[in-house]
Amino acid sequence: MTNPSPHYQEFAPPNAIADLIDAFWCFLTPCTALPNACLRHRVLPDGCMDLIFRCQRSTDGEMYNPQLTIYGATDRFNLFEIRPATEFVGVRFSPGMAGLFLKVNPIDLFQQEVKPQDCSEAFVNIFDRLCECSSTEQVLSSLQASLLVLRAVREGISLPIRAALRLVSTSKGRMPVSQIAKVVGVSERTLRRGVTKTVGLSPKVLGRILRFQSAMTRVRSQQTADLCRIALECGYVDQSHMGREFQQFSGSTPTTFIP
Questions:
Q1: What mean pLDDT do residues 176-194 have?
Q2: Are 75 and 201 within 8 A, CB to CB?
Q3: Which pLDDT value is given to residue 1?
Q4: Which of 9-18, 24-33, 106-115, 227-236 has the lowest mean pLDDT?
């Protein structure tokens, strides 16, 4: 008899913040007969920052060991050991948007995790409300309501940098930084400084990560993937180039993601 698998699900954000948030999500690990067993979970870079509430549930549904954490952007994969009966409810901000909600410097959070309660008093009350929830659905609803109240002030990001982020995202990293700078009307130096300050990653690294994510999605969607064709369509020089990027960002080869 096999143990039940972890469950992951995404939810679209409310319309009022749909252009600022990529998705709300939950990740639940099942109870097992081995209470000390741990799941090794691989998290891949996606150019985003996440606000995550995690807790464990007893057999009668009581919450214990709750935590609220901001995870900064990263340019490498991470392996986490997760205990059974752990639930995560999170929000994945669109690249560059987290700092406006969380009032933190994305550069300082590169490959870091911090408690948002230490960054803003507003999150003390948010954390308290999350701890009062009796189900995953209530946690998700409370988190969505809190972020609607904290709706970002968009003037915090200049128009050229906002436009540059859209181009990096919509092109899935295929548009060169030099071309993006020309389109939005700033120098490459200004572009690099503005995007790095806003996202915590340089525009080149952000583009590489989004291109990797795009290629991985294509590989996962095909039973027999034509890796050479996918590499060229995603903007890689060749299949070997794509393979090196997969190795850096996921620790695996593209064939690992073929279903």
A1: 96
A2: yes
A3: 34
A4: 24-33
Position 213, amino acid: Q
- Show the 3-state SS of the chain: CCCCCCEEEEECCCHHHCCCEEEEEEEECCCCCCCCCCEEEEECCCCCCEEEEEEEECCCCCEEEEEEEEECCCCCCEEEEECCCEEEEEEEECCCCHHHHHCCCCCCCCCCEECHHHCCCHHHHHHHHHHCCCCHHHHHHHHHHHHHHCCCCHHHCCHHHHHHHHHHHHCCCCCCHHHHHHHHCCCHHHHHHHHHHHHCCCHHHHHHHHHHHHHHHHHHCCCCCCHHHHHHHCCCCCHHHHHHHHHHHHCCCHHHHCC
Model confidence over 238-256: pLDDT tens digits?
999 999 999 999 999 999 9
CA distance 82 to 181: 42
| Cα 106–Cα 75–Cα 17 angle in degrees, nearest 5 | 50
CB 71 within 8 A of CB 113: yes
Read off the pTM: 0.90
In the block, tokens 């060991």 appear at 65
Q: How far is CA 34 from CA 80, 85, 95, in A?
A: 18, 11, 39
Closest Cα partner for 18 from 70, 95, 94, 78?
94
Closest C-alpha to 169, from 214, 229, 219: 214
Task: Look up residue 68 and give its two tokens.
Answer: 């609220």
